[in-house]
Design a protein that fits this description.
The structure holds 2 protein chains of 2 kinds. Chain A has helices at 10-48, 65-70, 81-113, 119-127, 134-145, 150-157, 171-196, 199-207, 212-240, 244-250, 257-266, 271-299; strands spanning 51-52, 58-59, 73-74, 77-78. Chain A is mainly alpha-helical. Chain A folds into 2 domains: 1-48, no CATH class; 88-299, MetI-like (MetI-like fold). A two-stranded antiparallel ribbon of chain A has the order 1-2. In chain A, strand 1 (51-52) and strand 2 form a beta hairpin. In chain A, helix 1 crosses helix 12, helix 5 runs parallel beside helix 10 (244-250) and helix 11 (257-266) packs antiparallel against helix 12 (271-299). Chain B is of the alpha+beta class. In chain B, the strands form 5 sheets. A 6-stranded mixed beta sheet of chain B has the order 6-7-8-3-9-10, with helices on both faces. A 5-stranded antiparallel beta sheet of chain B has the order 16-20-17-18-19, with no helix packed on it. Chain B has a 4-stranded antiparallel beta sheet with strand order 2-1-4-5, with helices on one face. Chain B has helices at 72-80, 122-132, 137-150, 166-178, 196-213, 224-230, 248-253, 258-263, and strands at 33-42, 46-56, 61-65, 87-92, 95-96, 107-110, 184-188, 216-221, 233-238, 241-246, 269-271, 274-276, 279-282, 285-288, 297-299, 306-309, 317-327, 331-338, 341-348, 360-364, 371-373. The two termini of chain B are 49 Å apart. The chains are: A mainly alpha, B alpha+beta. The interface between A and B is medium-sized, with 22 and 28 residues. Chain B: The complex is composed of two ATP-binding proteins (PotA), two transmembrane proteins (PotB and PotC) and a solute-binding protein (PotD).
């Protein structure tokens, strides 16, 4: 571009070199993203606003029919099945992320207090299960929670479920599966935050009249916040779109948004509806990220702590 | 900043945890510390403190001095309440606080790593203790402003902690502790992370602050020079046992044993083989001492020696050969061979001729400068 001029100055030569460097380093990745992410997403966006044809394929004219159906308006009036699926996804995401935090926080703290040579081993123990295929692990839970298994019979004896129901399939089983599956994604960033923490700061807080509880709240917790928020992002976003776990553990009443979308495409039943669901998922994810950013900024004293 | 500021200037009535108000113009009473029979061990074999009895006077700048692992930091942490003694009692200002948890003690600490909170601003760091004690925001602000003026923090209070240099962090850590007006201030090697120039500057600053506030300071260091500069009294620790307690001059000039002598930087230690009243027979030769004590080890401080050119006969005159000279400008350090023994001497550079390496000289020492101590 700068070669069109007369004798290029040293400065513009530098700019050309910079531009070339930028092109050489970024171009492959950018091309990949455009071909495999931007274009398909644009196509999906288009499909979401089209009409459902006879074989589930999109047709003209453009319409908002798919979004109306997601909001609970069916062919025959009010039919909230899709809306329930959407709300269930949100609820499962909130509950499982919350439980993951509650379980992971003490684990991460504990590992950070272990002797240095034990820590990698402990972290490995947290991560190792995720080396097995997710589907296989979920099948494992099916076997543990099915009717007639010790766990189910225990729950039955305690009056938590009715006779011969089993713990699976159920929404409870889905929550359990989600918590189990995403635990490492929370433990690792939290551990990183705890490891950076200077124990002298906890002592300083106590020395400055903070009871153990207040020392935790004012000196420890704020410093683990970046790890916590990173963990929440890593858990909540994939959990919201999860397909395998609700598919295997949820049964008919445990369906989540990911299953809804998959069904519309795989069964060949309704591409526009599936596309609309996918778009909705994307929007919800962006809203979630934006909210986390705001929260992080406020709690982190004006510092960027998320993304 | 005028020197008229006293403890009163940063005192606000009713602000202490026990609600005790300062009375009129009288500066607050500083608190004495009493330690009785403190024992502490870590695990099975590591003895940190092995029976420490100590009284620290009110308003004193008291230093715990010793090599690493001598128990000085453990002792400080027990005072702060961050460590619990296995046995023994601890009282501050006449009140037994052995069982009191750290957050209920009117004692504050300046940590070796400073331990400033990185997620809080400097101002919030300074106000942390006041906030935890439930002081209203206006009063917190007023006291933070006062301490900032007192320690001359200037515009540092509006910075973030990660924008501060080492020396600035050190002063913020000091201010964060002082703003609470504790009965006792504990300092755990607070200057060890700083370079030499800044270090001596902050030594003087710290000393002035202590004198002006009249507060009891307990200071931990492994640097005997620093201990001598700062302290009213020094306790030298080794192996969890107090070896000697006394003013810097006493500890330096009359160490009670070889450990204290060596730790204070003395190398000229010689066994006394025969003792006949004030006549001491040592590997250096026969020497006359005066009021040297009863020990079996002779200490000769390098700066008490004088060097005469050539061989001069006389009492306490030892023939020697210069084997090494370190010229340091204001003085020179000599290594001398006396018979088969070596002797260190320090000579002030007062413009006279300084003997050269290889010179034959005569070492002289006054009888009253000789000290004997036990092993």
């Amino acid at each position: 571009m700068a070669y069109t001029g007369v004798t290029p100055s040293a400065r513009s030569r530098g700019m050309v070199r910079e531009a070339r460097h930028l092109l050489a380093t970024v171009a492959p990745g950018a091309t990949w993203i455009v071909i495999f992410l931007v274009l398909p997403s644009a196509y999906l966006m288009g499909v979401a606003f089209m009409t459902n044809g006879p074989y589930g394929l999109p047709e003209m004219p453009l319409s908002l029919e798919s979004f109306r159906r997601l909001a609970g308006f069916g062919f025959l009036g009010w039919s909230p099945g899709n809306l329930y699926t959407l709300l269930r996804s949100l609820w499962q995401t909130l509950v499982s992320t919350g439980l993951v935090v509650i379980v992971a926080y003490p684990i991460a703290y504990y590992i950070s207090t272990c002797r240095a040579r034990w820590r990698p081993i402990m972290l490995l123990l947290v991560v190792v299960p995720s080396w097995t295929n997710q589907v296989i692990r979920t099948f494992g839970w099916m076997n543990l929670l099915a009717p007639g298994t010790p766990l189910s019979e225990l729950a039955e004896a305690l009056g938590l479920i009715s006779a011969n129901m089993g713990l699976y399939p159920s929404n409870f089983a889905v929550t359990l599966g989600l918590v189990y599956n995403f635990l490492p994604f929370m433990v690792l960033p939290l551990y990183a935050a705890f490891e950076k923490l200077d124990t002298a700061q906890v002592e300083a807080a106590q020395d400055l009249f903070a009871s153990p509880v207040r020392a935790f709240w004012h000196a420890v917790f704020p410093q683990t916040l970046p790890g916590l928020l990173a963990g929440i992002v890593l858990v909540a976003i994939p959990a919201f779109g999860m397909y395998v776990i609700p598919e295997l553990l949820g049964g008919g009443k445990g369906m989540m948004l990911g299953n809804l979308v998959a069904n519309q495409f795989a069964g060949g039943s309704n591409w526009p509806l599936g596309a609309a669901g996918a778009i909705l998922m994307l929007i919800a994810t962006f809203i979630g990220l934006f909210a986390m950013r705001r929260i992080g900024k406020r709690l982190g004293g004006g510092e960027e702590v998320v993304i | 900043m005028s020197d008229t500021i006293t403890a009163e200037a940063i005192e606000s009535p009713g602000a202490r945890p026990d609600g005790e108000a300062a009375q009129g113009e009288v500066a607050r009473e500083a608190s004495a510390i009493e330690l009785q029979g403190l024992h502490k061990r870590f695990g099975r074999d590591t003895v940190a403190l092995d029976g420490v009895d100590l009284t620290i006077e009110a308003g004193e700048f008291f230093t715990l001095l010793g090599p690493s692992g001598c128990g000085k930091t453990t002792l400080l942490r027990i005072l702060a309440g961050l460590e619990e003694a296995d046995a023994g009692r601890l009282a501050i200002g006449g009140k037994d606080i052995t069982e009191v948890p750290p957050h209920k003690r009117s004692v504050n600490t300046v940590f070796q790593s400073y331990a400033l909170f990185p997620h809080l601003s400097v101002r919030e760091n300074l106000a942390f203790g006041l906030k935890m004690r439930g002081l209203p925001p206006e009063e917190r602000e007023a006291r933070v402003a006062k301490i900032a003026e007192f320690i001359k923090l200037g515009d540092l209070v509006d910075r973030r902690v990660d924008q501060l240099s080492g020396g600035q962090r050190q002063r913020i850590a000091l201010a964060r502790a002082l703003v609470n007006e504790p009965d006792v201030l504990l300092l755990d090697e607070p200057l060890s992370a700083l370079d030499a120039g800044l270090r001596s500057q902050l030594q003087v600053e710290l000393l002035r602050v202590q004198k002006r506030l009249g507060m009891t300071f307990v200071f931990v260091t492994h640097d005997q020079q620093e201990a001598m500069v700062m302290s009213d009294r020094i306790a030298v620790l080794n192996g969890g046992v107090i070896q000697q307690v006394g003013p810097p001059r006493e500890v330096y000039e009359h160490p009670v044993n070889a450990f204290v002598a060596r730790f204070m930087g003395h190398d000229n230690l010689y066994p006394v083989t025969v003792r006949d009243g004030d006549r001491l027979t040592t590997p250096l030769g026969e020497l006359t001492a005066e009021g040297a004590g009863e020990g079996e080890l002779l200490l000769i401080r390098p700066e008490t020696l004088d060097l005469l050119p050539g061989e001069v006969a006389g009492d306490n005159h030892l023939p020697a050969v210069v084997s090494e000279r370190l010229y340091r400008g204001s003085h020179a350090e000599y290594r001398l061979e006396v018979g088969s023994s070596t002797l260190q001497a320090t000579l002030n550079n007062r413009g006279r001729r300084l003997p050269e390496v290889g010179d034959r000289v005569t070492v002289t020492v006054a009888p009253e400068d000789l000290v004997t101590l036990s092993e």
